[in-house]
Amino acid sequence: MVVLSKIYTRTGDKGDTALGNGTRVAKHALRVDAYGTSDELNATVGLARLHAEGEADAALARIQNDLFDLGADLCNPEPEDGETPEYPPLRMVAEQTTRLEAEIDAMNARLTPLRSFILPGGSALAAHLHLCRTVARRAERLAVELAGAEPINSHAVTYLNRLSDWFFVAGRIANDDGAADVLWVPGANR
Length: 190
Hints:
By secondary structure, this protein is mainly alpha-helical.
């Protein structure tokens, strides 16, 4: 259990921060950017939840919890060869992505196939879910960039990739099962 008795520590006043393993790095480090963006994504999911009810809200609550798991994973570098951490870091697992895939398949079964790209919008919930989708894509790009620079848990990247798909399909569900999707009309304003 986490206990936060003091919110400010002054330890980051000079522009560095501690990773989950205690290593100090610059606040602009790629790893910090990656888990910071997953935190930003979590905040956008919180906004979407203001417009969600029932199972949609419950699914978003599960995703918010997963995003904290993701942040915990990304803020803890992989141990050096032969190093055994005193407390093994929390890592994303394949089952979290598998759950998203099952939810995507169930939602997608309700939808007619797309015949056009759609524009973000429609209902308030759909618009917020599209914002979540774009932040998830940015978080994924940062995680992929981080993976190119140092080892990370591959399940973190896979989860983010699938999560953006989840937000896209959920956005269509939030638009009256796609009936209220806002369709792109190529060249409409020429």
